[in-house]
């Protein structure tokens, strides 16, 4: 029995986010992209209401509204 890997992508460049999603889904069929978030504000809001539904986060460090490390310090 194969379990899905639930992934969150934090990336403010649409093309980069789409490419990452494509690459991840080519690697394994059990990968599910839960959401793609484009800013610190959007990510903070999303994580506050969506606890424990993801297994892995891929994040750009520099986002349009600051460094992504701010997301996890809030």
Describe the structure in your own words.
This protein is 39% helix and 28% strand. By secondary structure, it is α/β, with parallel strands linked by helices. The strands form 2 sheets. Strands 2-1-3 form a 3-stranded parallel beta sheet. A two-stranded antiparallel ribbon has the order 4-5. Strand 1 (5-10), helix 1 and strand 2 form a beta-alpha-beta unit. It is globular. The chain starts with a strand and ends with a helix. 15% of the residues are buried.
List strands and helices in order, with pairings.
Blueprint: E1 5-10, H1 14-27, E2 31-37, H2 40-49, E3 56-59, E4 62-63, E5 66-67, H3 69-73
Parallel strand pairs: 1-2, 1-3
Antiparallel strand pairs: 4-5
Short précis:
The chain is an alpha/beta fold and 74 residues long.
